[in-house]
Amino acid sequence: MDFAYDAKTEELRGRLLSFMDEFVYPAEAVLEKQLEEATDEWARTPIVADLQAEARKAGLWNLFLPDAEHGAGLTNLQYAPLAEITGRSPHLAPEALNCAAPDTGNMEVLAMFGTEEQKKQWLRPLLDGEIRSAFCMTEPDVASSDATNIATRIERDGDSYVINGTKWWSSGAMNPNCAIFIVMGKTNPEAERHQQQAMILVPRDTPGVEVKRGMHVFGYTDGPHGGHAEVVFTDVRVPVDNLVAGEGEGFAIAQARLGPGRIHHCMRLIGMAERALELMCRRANERVAFGKPIAAQGVVQEWIAESRVRIEQARLLVLKTAWLMDTVGNKGAHTEIQAIKIGVPLMAEWVLDKAIQAHGAGGVSQDFPLANLWASARTLRLADGPDEVHRMSLAKRELKKYR
Amino acid sequence: MDFAYDAKTEELRGRLLSFMDEFVYPAEAVLEKQLEEATDEWARTPIVADLQAEARKAGLWNLFLPDAEHGAGLTNLQYAPLAEITGRSPHLAPEALNCAAPDTGNMEVLAMFGTEEQKKQWLRPLLDGEIRSAFCMTEPDVASSDATNIATRIERDGDSYVINGTKWWSSGAMNPNCAIFIVMGKTNPEAERHQQQAMILVPRDTPGVEVKRGMHVFGYTDGPHGGHAEVVFTDVRVPVDNLVAGEGEGFAIAQARLGPGRIHHCMRLIGMAERALELMCRRANERVAFGKPIAAQGVVQEWIAESRVRIEQARLLVLKTAWLMDTVGNKGAHTEIQAIKIGVPLMAEWVLDKAIQAHGAGGVSQDFPLANLWASARTLRLADGPDEVHRMSLAKRELKKYR
Amino acid sequence: MDFAYDAKTEELRGRLLSFMDEFVYPAEAVLEKQLEEATDEWARTPIVADLQAEARKAGLWNLFLPDAEHGAGLTNLQYAPLAEITGRSPHLAPEALNCAAPDTGNMEVLAMFGTEEQKKQWLRPLLDGEIRSAFCMTEPDVASSDATNIATRIERDGDSYVINGTKWWSSGAMNPNCAIFIVMGKTNPEAERHQQQAMILVPRDTPGVEVKRGMHVFGYTDGPHGGHAEVVFTDVRVPVDNLVAGEGEGFAIAQARLGPGRIHHCMRLIGMAERALELMCRRANERVAFGKPIAAQGVVQEWIAESRVRIEQARLLVLKTAWLMDTVGNKGAHTEIQAIKIGVPLMAEWVLDKAIQAHGAGGVSQDFPLANLWASARTLRLADGPDEVHRMSLAKRELKKYR
Amino acid sequence: MDFAYDAKTEELRGRLLSFMDEFVYPAEAVLEKQLEEATDEWARTPIVADLQAEARKAGLWNLFLPDAEHGAGLTNLQYAPLAEITGRSPHLAPEALNCAAPDTGNMEVLAMFGTEEQKKQWLRPLLDGEIRSAFCMTEPDVASSDATNIATRIERDGDSYVINGTKWWSSGAMNPNCAIFIVMGKTNPEAERHQQQAMILVPRDTPGVEVKRGMHVFGYTDGPHGGHAEVVFTDVRVPVDNLVAGEGEGFAIAQARLGPGRIHHCMRLIGMAERALELMCRRANERVAFGKPIAAQGVVQEWIAESRVRIEQARLLVLKTAWLMDTVGNKGAHTEIQAIKIGVPLMAEWVLDKAIQAHGAGGVSQDFPLANLWASARTLRLADGPDEVHRMSLAKRELKKYR
């Protein structure tokens, strides 16, 4: 047992921390300004392209992808502390490094399950940051945490598949540069519970695809990240070659995609919580009320100490989960992946709430990043399945041990 | 001791409940539509004027004002259950009845402390719903919960007062129809701690007044309510007659204004929590996951029961506080006003969080009112002084009993 | 709506508060001493008899019994604030006034459902404080919150009933002076769900009754209150006249008994919480750490403020519940009785936990009453049905409103 | 970074797990029986001696002592998972292995700071389990978390030191076999804040030592562990050679002792929480209410999942802390030691509370170990300094980073 990062991780951490100081943090104010002046609320701001150029130069590109052929070839355990650092500036750093959801998960799907042709057409430009992508899974009319509920149909018709259904929370899809959608639907509705689904590639400009509107998250549109779209598919016809892997394999692909997706979110949440704690400390040191800095108030001290205790515990569980994924595989790390999915967003939400409170009314406003971060953390208690579903599932495995 | 509403209250409750069913709830969808089509994001939507006309017809107008000459002459205890009902649709009902903050508090100040001339010029059109008003107290650079921190200066110069300072969170001030600002500042910075401040009337169109920008609340601008403005006052000159009461009386006026203001917020929060509980129950009955309605899930049942228990307790404390204000005065009800200021927003936030969770990802979006209501409730843990300041103050009085 | 106690209540409160000051609080140290010297750990201490004599003189006797023929004839609303006061010294005051569980509930059962003969033989000496009684309902082998689980059998055999079964948590039954047991069992196991049970009177000295052992509550035996016994009934034979009301009426009697029983517990819990808050304040004022009284620590102030807020809310809900029981009956107050059963023990537990923490290690010990009170409050989250059962039941009624 | 235990740890874990199954768990019922029949409530029960004999045979003896000369020579990281396992049966296993507080800490003090003579006289018999010891630090009249408050005096008088003062919570001291007390007091009250104290060895039979009474913990006396004594020292005279290290070094010794002491407590708490979770799962699988096992109730599933999530996080932080102590020393691990002192008792308390609730009324009684374990966990929020003091101290270091 050893709690020190390995040499490669330490080297990359050092490089990334410098990159954050030199490029990312100074870019935050630029982003705000460009957003105010933007004509298309859904497009990426120019600053992101600038940062991407610097990141490539610095050798900080596609770090998320364990596949050494296409990505950086890092283990989950090596990537985790890097993703954490990007979480400190989550509206800029992940995209700067081409490590932002949902593109990361989509690239992993293509790298693992894509044909050579699919890789050439879609994976390559994604790896190069030329296009963006969306993942269309959740549906408005059913509880999507239960995959058997999915109502979208993918029906074979000659050399085509025909897709009908409505998806929402397709993150990034409002972005005009988002060129390709990976859509989950049922090809075999009569098959066994987890053999009914498939995934298929749908170019954005296919007839019958309607990107209808952006969903809000507590008043935020998340515009610069391409928002969260409701997308309607009406008799959308694509060639059979667009299928990812085979019919009935959609659930397995989703599982393969969701494990890393969930841990990436959790890694970044640790960084968000660290940022919040730093801001809370700075504010507490500077702000004076009733004759002394609020850092001298016992209640604020409690928040700070409790934040530190919670962050440390959460980080370790994320790191152990990454290690398990590396050593025994995603399936063997199932309990831990669920555990961090349950615990880490709640932790980050708690720390952010306290940091907001320490900032007074400014904390809920656009003058600090806290309220926006809070909304992201809160939403992750629902994204990829609500906490309650994960708790139920984890508990059942625990109960089985003693039956 | 008697827990039944009196006859007058019951009659008004009946009338208001019908008004909600007939006019307000159906108007919610209209509001959404008008907001999408609005050209000025800060202006009131036409539907509000329609509702106001109906409310006047129904005799549901200015219910908040205990002063029978200008308002409905209700006690706080009679008004509380009515304000609660308006809280069920807080973006429409309070304004429909001309009972929305900050106009209510401003009208109370004018009714209590205004000269005949001030009443004629500003109170009359406010009572008639012809103009709106703002209350400029909080400042960005200081912890405003400590009134001695206020930096805005109101300096006598001949027959004028000259005002310099920056305010923010001046709710309603982004609305072009918001004609009059009540501004708090220091006239006597060398006087005793609570004798330094004054309040002064500043018409919006006075030279030197700059309504600079709207503050966001978790991504929401609260546009249709006139937003929350940052307002800069630079050498703003108004006649000495614009002073409300005298120099040094600003703190006392603020206290007189804040007591009712806080309880009105709390009354409406009860209604917001009731609305959330209703929506949570409806959703739980309708939504199916893993083969049964989520109403059958033990965890959701816990949320519902706990919500009911918390709402009932909070309502009773609000009602008792209203009764105390009526019988022993705002000063005698000081502890209870602080107690509801501490307890009720937290209660409403908790119920809303659970209702959101029961709605899945939809809960954080614009498709349900819950996320927006949540943001309001959360913000009330900061508005009019953060919880921590009220807890500290309440505790000190409690500790004194045993010294 | 009126939040003032009526004149009779105020008069009795005054009298009881004097009684507490003059007799009860000074007796607490005497109790401790007599307990140390006691030879029978299950017997009442002599100080209780002394207090009872004083209480009768002061006209503070059997206040709990609404029946004016046998008791004080107070409404629930009048009794509630008195029971609260006794809760401030719960190991002495309730017994001093002959208002201690389980005798109170048993007397109510006898007063409401007993025959003249049963009243003469058992109610009279209970009213006079000459004997004590136990209520034998809960069973070790089944979840007793579901009454249909009860396994004890009461079988007719000629002019007798024969009882077989095992009960536990029969409070008071370890006391040698506890002369009569009211036992719940099934007479009609094949009848409809709530028509299967009956209650029967079993004198302690009936052959086949074995009072086996006292159950502990977190290390406490509650000896001076007669403990909490496990009682085994083996072929216990009593005359048919010992049945309370008729066969199959046990569930209805239990319901009639539990409503007032639950509210009495809650009333006393309010008093316990008030006592804890008082002790916390006194300690905080007196104890110095790191150069200032802990009363000046922000965290302790938070505990105190939050305690006051929670106590006030809980008290009002208890009072409203009492009022509902008086005006619409126990059945009409069903939701509120469950609500206080859920909310009040948790509130008291929370306040007591903080008071303990403020007392340092002394707080968990015998040197302060706090740990013992905490154990009582904690246990009331389980007694008369665990919180979870009440929440489930309350939620189902709430959900029904919107189906 | 590597989350696997090393080979030595795995081997010892295997051996210890077998020992638990073969000897410790079966001994729990024996302990209960021997306690009931015991004539001296403060003496060790015979079963402990039996287990100790087996443990020595199994090579599971003095594992806690990193000093390879006297102990097992394990690192903290190697010992941590073993201490966790003993925490599953905390009333038997730690003593069985001669790894029970306060002897462990006292042996460490003697091994690190003792003279050869002191080691021969006291360390040797402690290592052999022949005698027991107590640590006399906390005082009833002052907040002992602030070491400068300590009032006990150790005054030089010729070749002797004379000790006057009152201590309490001297765990183990009620045990007649507890032969030696390490007493903390002030030798240099005028010196710098942390140079005032010293530690001195006081044999129990020294004239002037009065072991006055045992403190209770939520009604428990912890008799078989020698209780928690109040000890009065009146003109107690011991030779100058009894001083441990020098005058003024008491604070430094205390610090050296408390770090390992705190982490040992935390390690065992993890095991206690695991035991509670196991019992909760077993109960949930077995107990039926309302027609199904309570394992099928969503609320119970939430408790189980949440317990697993909290335990995993806490364990990792304890392990990392152990690793830090091994690699950078106790001082470098200061923040983490405080973090586990804050977080782990609260975690264990929470899990135990839920396990109790799942057991119904039985959960608070002597029929399950849960209530007793809960009392231990709760008390550790106060022992070695209340949580609030540690939070304040940790927060101040955190705040300093950003000043």
TrEMBL record, chains A, B, C, D:
Protein name: Acyl-CoA dehydrogenase
One Gene Ontology cellular component: cytoplasm
Record domain Acyl-CoA dehydrogenase/oxidase N-terminal: where: 27-130
Organism: Umezawaea tangerina
GO biological process: fatty acid beta-oxidation using acyl-CoA dehydrogenase
Domain Acyl-CoA dehydrogenase/oxidase C-terminal residue range list: 248-397
Cofactor: FAD
Family from the record: Belongs to the acyl-CoA dehydrogenase family.
Domain Acyl-CoA oxidase/dehydrogenase middle: 134-236
Keyword Chloroplast: no
GO molecular function: acyl-CoA dehydrogenase activity; flavin adenine dinucleotide binding
Subunit structure: Homodimer.
Pfam families per record: Acyl-CoA_dh_1 (PF00441), Acyl-CoA_dh_M (PF02770), Acyl-CoA_dh_N (PF02771)
Keyword terms, alphabetized: FAD, Flavoprotein, Oxidoreductase
Keyword tRNA-binding: no
